[in-house]
Amino acid sequence: MSKKKPFTFWLWLYQLYKWPVYLPHMIINSVVNATLAALFSIVVSPRAGSFWGMMWAKITCWLTPVITRVHGRKNVNPNQSYVIVANHQTGFDIFLLYAHLGIDFKWMMKKELRRIPFIGYASEKVGHIFIDRSSARAAILSLEEAKRKLTGGSSVLIFPEGTRSKSGQMRPFKRGAFKLALELELPVLPVTIVNSWQIKRRGFLNIVPGRAALVFHPPVRTCDYIGRPLDLMNVTLETIESGNKVVYTR
Fold first, then answer.
1. What is the Cα–Cα distance from 57 to 136, expressed in whole angstroms?
2. Which of 60, 176, 198, 207 has its CA 20 to 30 A from that of 27?
3. Cα–Cα distance between 15 and 39 in angstroms, integer?
4. Nearest to 26 by CA among 228, 225, 207, 244
5. Phi and psi torsions of 186, nearest 5°
6. Angle, to 10 degrees, between the axis of helix 23-43 and the axis of helix 119-126?
7. SS3 at position 4
8. Dihedral angle sign, alpha carbons of residues 187, 188, 193, 197
9. pLDDT > 90: what percent of the chain?
10. What are 110's strand-pairing partners?
């Protein structure tokens, strides 16, 4: 019991910051950066709009606050298009990736997120891809849209688990991301997200400050797996799982 009391005290104290300070600043942060992202996407280019998405994420991490350790930055070439594949723990994952990945990417997200005020509209203008899971044909059309947008160094981000694990335990992968990578002959960039589930917990705005980590692994060449999406998927899954060892042994 003695170990839990200080932690409980700090969580209680954090509520005094979260509701009167964090929440209003997050609303302002989201509205301002979503508006700028949409405006720059329309007037300049979707890539210019993505800059404001990155700022939105960086400010969110700073406000929470979350300290993030990044491993393997040298494995990411900003001039290369990738199919980025990451494990998916919570809704905070996208803030961590947007803030620290450092390259232009389009996120494949469920279509229900399009209804979020400001953010949904900005996501559409920036070029993020909304997935309709109502049928296999609708999912295929989403992948076709992703193909059209992977130009000029832009990448696509896919969570192959299909849904959040809400813990450190990964769910089985689905093959769509790996079939897309093989069709486009693009390398797969595996990314391990560590401890996001301890920052965003179940419940509305149930966020706590903490530490997270991102591990950017060496890209996997799809030319070595032609006609073998299942093998590509398994190798990527094992690589992402190994990211925890990189973090916890340093």
1. 32
2. 198
3. 34
4. 207
5. -110, 145
6. 30
7. helix
8. positive
9. 72
10. 131
Strands 210-216 and 188-194, by their bridges, are antiparallel
Would residue 27 be called left, alpha or beta, if left means φ above 0 and alpha means ψ between -120 and 50 degrees?
alpha
CA neighbours within 13 Å on the CB side: how many for 202?
3
Nearest partner of 53 among 39, 69, 68, judged by Cα: 39
Helix or strand holding residue 234 (H, E): helix 229-248
* Per-residue pLDDT band at 203 (split at 50, 70, 90): confident
Query: If 0-12 CB within 10 Å is exposed, 13-18 middle and 19+ buried, where does residue 145 land?
Result: middle
Are the C-beta atoms of residues 89 and 192 closer than 8 Å to each other? no
The neighbour count for residue 133, using CB atoms within 10 Å, is 12
Structure tokens at 54: 């990155």
From 7-11, 84-88, 203-207, the region with the lowest mean pLDDT: 7-11
Find the helix or strand (DSSP H, E) in which 157 lies.
Answer: strand 155-158
Eight-class DSSP state of 18: I
Report pLDDT digits (tens) over 63-115: 999 999 999 999 999 989 999 999 999 999 999 999 999 999 999 888 889 99
Using the structure block, give the residue that is written with the tokens 């193909």.
147
Indicate if the pLDDT at residue 212 is higher than 60: yes
Task: Tell me which amino acid residue 24 is.
Answer: P
Q: What is the pTM of this model?
A: 0.91
